[in-house]
Amino acid sequence: MSPHYPTIADCIGNTPLVRLQRLPGNTSNTLLLKLEGNNPAGSVKDRPALSMITRAESRGDIQPGDVLIEATSGNTGIALAMAAAIKGYRMVLIMPDNSTAERKAAMTAYGAQLILVGGMEEARDLALQMQADGKGKVLDQFANGDNPIAHYTSTGPEIWQQTGGEITHFISSMGTTGTIMGVSRFLKEQKPDVQIVGLQPMEGAAIPGIRRWPQEYLPSIYQAERVDRIIDMGQQEAEDVMRRLAREEGIFCGVSSGGSVAAMLRLSQEVENAVMVAIICDRGDRYLSSGVYDVPSN
């Protein structure tokens, strides 16, 4: 019998869950990180990207040859560009012009066409306008139920299994909110008292990938009742913990992941004998040109 060889799509998910060793200090809590940068296109967004395309295909909403359009600040765009390449679609990505050079280069490497605009709200408006003009079909990660369902069917069950059901707290940055919505739904079904903690930037903070949405742009997939607590995170604290993760734990990630771990370290001061899981949503090499890693160590 010949061996079964996986495709690249088969390699999405089943990412490692690793324990922090130095940052937590002396504590009875177990602090765990889900390393989503280990996905093939380098982020947690690989899961919803493939889910949105394959589920739209199965419903007959799209077919090969269609042009797909999406507004993105980075990781979703890279993941969708990869998924479109796997499936044979043309991908048009509309993104803020302040996105890092690495992100833009990765998208074009997968064959996507880029349109740069001033900000994320403008990107979302343009995507819908292009669809109205018949230029393609918008997947709309902000309103597409296939986004959180990817985490309900994969990320959540993986975390439950990897912690042996002992998880007490789940911490995730909030951008489209797909990750926290899907994981919350699954974990709460298994264990209603698990604490779901969302992270948003403080007023004035610019943390790539997460937003403090104006009410009219709040993702429609977001359900406030699925989040027990929201922590406001400052940019400096997120960046400091991000750099410490690389230097003291060997975990190289982006700023929003640093913010999630900063929030987890805060929570760890409040409780005992907890098992906490935070999402490390991507890898740090995606941010090198922004200079966030240029600060010398103390």
TrEMBL record:
InterPro entries, per database record: Cys_synth, Cys_Synth/Cystath_Beta-Synth, CysM, P-phosphate_BS, TrpB-like_PALP, TrpB-like_PALP_sf
Domain of life: Bacteria
Keyword Cytoplasm carried by entry: no
Cofactor: pyridoxal 5'-phosphate
Catalytic activity: O-acetyl-L-serine + hydrogen sulfide = L-cysteine + acetate
Metabolic or biological pathway, per its Swiss-Prot or TrEMBL entry: Amino-acid biosynthesis; L-cysteine biosynthesis; L-cysteine from L-serine: step 2/2
Residue intervals of the Tryptophan synthase beta chain-like PALP domain: 9-282
GO BP terms: cysteine biosynthetic process from serine
Alphabetized UniProt keyword annotations: Amino-acid biosynthesis, Cysteine biosynthesis, Pyridoxal phosphate, Transferase
Positions annotated to bind pyridoxal 5'-phosphate: N75, G175, T176, T177, G178, T179, S256
Enzyme class: transferase
Gene Ontology MF annotations: cysteine synthase activity
Family under the similarity heading: Belongs to the cysteine synthase/cystathionine beta-synthase family.
Protein name, per record: Cysteine synthase
Originating species: Pseudomonas leptonychotis
Gene (name only): cysM
